[in-house]
Amino acid sequence: MGSLIRVKQRRAGVLVSLPSIVSEHSFECGDIYSLYPLCDWARDIGFSIIQLLPLNDTGYGYSPYSAISAFAIDPLYISLYKLGLPNQSRKKEIRTLHNHPNRIRNEKIKCIREYYDSHQKAALKEAVDFLDKQPWCYSYGTFRVLYETYEGKNWWEWPKEFQNPLAAKDFIFSERREEVMFWVYLQKIAYDQLSAVKVHLEDKGIYLKGDMPILTARNSCDVWEHPEYFYMDLQAGAPPDHFSQSGQTWGFPVLNWDVLQKNHYSWWKDRLTYLEHFFHLYRIDHVIGMYRIWAIPREDKTALKGWFHPQFGIETSEFLKAGIDPKSMEAKGLIHEFKPNHYIFYWDFWKEESYQSLPEETKTKLFPLSQLHITEEEKHWREAGEAILEIFESFSSMVPCAEDLGSVPSFIRDSLFERQMIGIDVVRWTRSFATGEYIDEDHYRENAISVLSTHDTSLVMDWWKNEGDLESNLQFFFDRVGKPRPESENQILEGLLEFVFQTKSIFCIQLFQDLALGVPDVLQNPEKHRINYPGTPDHSNWTYRFPILIEEFASDFQRNFTLRKLVHSSGRN
């Protein structure tokens, strides 16, 4: 079933935040077992893709994009029910829209610990076998024990001897072997449960799509073990745009592709090989970062002093040739020497007071320098990004899908188009470059996934009520196709779903909450059902829980009938 030919046809699917979909057999939040009833429902509707947000271990944090391991699955997702453990949630119905991941994880670990202790011999043997097959568990297990010991403190604040991974592994595996093997055992169970889901879904004709964050938390096992794979003095982010005047700083160290290349990209190869045990397709988070990334000094609080990395920069000799002393421009805060005798210009440097007050003849000499190497840099970035994506495709038979949202420079857009990478089109942002109007169904990119919302946006009903221009939305989504104007929230949502299913995009994958026809709270208070607000503190996000058990949701005849009809008439079933 794994062949790409089979996957690449017109399909519909659903995207879920796994902890949000609680099943009758879940322990307080959604887990790997939840995928079984979800699969039955998806199949009944005619969906053939289930997409998940990353499942990586987040430690004491909440965001799956800021995990403490690029490999390990969060123990939060282990199904106690699948393990045959009788522990039930304390309450039979869902009372609040929020999980408490740390509390739930600790409770689960406690239950599994008792089970492990009572089956010590067999369980230990399973863990040892798994460790042999998955050597990344040596460093992850060690890191996890120390992370617990020092209560989530950054690894660079640990005692000196544990900042050295080799010494730390030796110590932990000899002095605290029992403890570390338990963490390996948790990974073994998670592996078994998730890989079994993949097989089950294949039998039902459904593909599972995973998510691969491109960046890694600074306080993670991977950065601790391989600091050479990263520029530790830089952090990744995004330049200023109309959403954010000062840009975004993400805190993640910037990847050092030169070192990764010398190592034949073995870290990426291992990651992709591991993901392939679970998924048929995967989302490459922030694909633009494979070509170039906005790099900012680690200590900066805004992204204003960043640059596109890797950059050639303007050499001292090129400034002198133009009759400008680069040091004097650096003193004015317009440029920055990011490596000896190589300077970058700051974003929007020409808006600075110190630039405006320069003599006109100096400006005339200075400004062209900022544009000096753009053409060759874009050529270099394009070649570098394509080489990386080429390598990725050689490492696995999973179908890659690129997250190419935001302002994507035309050279990257052209590159992705030529590579036939599947991109993503969010309906509210998919407009004509020429007129700014929405584009109709037939003009969507074929090689893309059309969606109404993402985990980082408001739900489509929130957008409709509070963000979009109501009159032009009504004209486009209803009047234009001869549909009567909607009189209820349900009719609005159904109209939007009908549009997105009819688009030309090869895949159409909707956020679970955007499929909640007939669920009053989701329709009336969509803002309460959002997964993440980018740029706000980690712990205020990622705890969302859907208000109805998945089994109950799946048994609603009317909703299923409507969705089945939409999927069928769009030729996606």
Automatic annotation (TrEMBL):
It is found in: Cytoplasm. It comes from the Bacteria. SUPFAM superfamilies: (Trans)glycosidases (SSF51445). It catalyses: Transfers a segment of a (1->4)-alpha-D-glucan to a new position in an acceptor, which may be glucose or a (1->4)-alpha-D-glucan. The keyword Transferase applies. Its main location: cytoplasm. The keyword Cytoplasm applies. It is an enzyme of class 2 (transferase). Signal peptide: none annotated. Its EC number is 2.4.1.25. Keywords: Carbohydrate metabolism, Cytoplasm, Glycosyltransferase, Transferase. Gene3D superfamilies: Glycosidases (3.20.20.80). InterPro entries: GH (IPR017853), Glyco_hydro_77 (IPR003385). Belongs to the disproportionating enzyme family. PANTHER family: 4-ALPHA-GLUCANOTRANSFERASE (PTHR32518:SF3), PTHR32518. This is 4-alpha-glucanotransferase. It comes from Leptospira bouyouniensis.
